[in-house]
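re the bet — no i am not wrong, look at it urself. input seq straight from the record:
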Amino acid sequence: MKNKLQCIGVMTISCGLIAALGAQQSPKHPDGALGALRQLGFNAAKAVLDRDLSTLLNYDRSDLRADDEVSLGDKKSDLYCFLFDSTCLPGGKGRSVYEKLSTAHELGVKVVDGGRSPRDGNRYALVLFYDRSTISEQSLRSRKFLCKESLNRISSWSFKFADGKWQPVTPLFDNETDTLCSPD
């Protein structure tokens, strides 16, 4: 029941982040917190591309880290397949995060500011990983496009800014969540 409630909470937050996509404009002033999250996104992407599991686990949710470390040691686990091996994804659907990132001609990392949550006062943001050479900024503002392309061309990860730092809200790269497929 706790996991279902967490999932509902994550989906509510994610729906707000997706709604923020359409309204988002380029900031007039650089935002240091969002810049730090964008850099975190590039570092996490590099960890996936380098298959640097220890660095990747440093970005993981602390409550999932030990279990995820075990899962990443099993090359047939759902998490390992989701991150690194498309051939073992359930139902043969989609591409692994590694495949999406490694085939990008120009890796893009876009941070979508979801603002502060009235529920907990924390700031939320969504990080999108995509190929800038084939996906436009305008396309990234479309919920329909994001949902359609999230299996094969776009990866995401949801974060919150709490206690002075960005913390993941969801498992690694939104594993086991449908954050980009919110209803219109």
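see?? The beta strands are 107-116, 123-131, 155-162, 165-168. told u. also The first strand starts at residue 107 and ends at 116. so pay up
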